[in-house]
């Protein structure tokens, strides 16, 4: 799975890493061993984790976009 990073830009790779980290953290926060056989609950946990992970990815991509924009504006001023 790590091979995917070779096909992504640096920004996309950081976004993907943020997604994976956030998904894992949120899923582990929700996970309860005694309910691990409950398919509906697992799907619900996965959906919540996916939402949190997408938010994390978007924050990374937006931050990079803002940083790139600021750098571009700074070049125009000079």
Record keyword descriptors for this entry.
0% strand, 78 residues, single chain, mainly alpha
Q: What does the model show?
A:
- The chain has 78 residues and is mainly α.
- The longest helix is centred in the last third of the chain and has 39 residues, at 39-77.
- Helix 1 (10-30) runs antiparallel to helix 2.
- The radius of gyration is 17 Å and the shape is elongated.
- The protein starts with 9 loop residues before the first helix and ends with a helix.
- It contains two helices and no strands.
- The mean pLDDT is 89.
What would you say about this model in short?
With 78 residues, the chain is mostly helical. Helix content is 77%, strand content 0%.
- Spans of 5+ residues with little confidence (pLDDT < 50)? none
Helicity level: over 70%
Which structural class should the secondary elements be placed in? mainly alpha
Taken from the alpha-carbon principal axes, the silhouette is: elongated
Q: Radius of gyration from the CA trace?
A: 17 Å
Strand content: under 5%
Helix tally equals: 2
SSE pattern, N- to C-terminal:
HH
Mean pLDDT: 89
Major sheet size, sense and barrel closure? none
| Spatial separation of the terminal alpha carbons | 43 Å
- How many DSSP E strands? 0
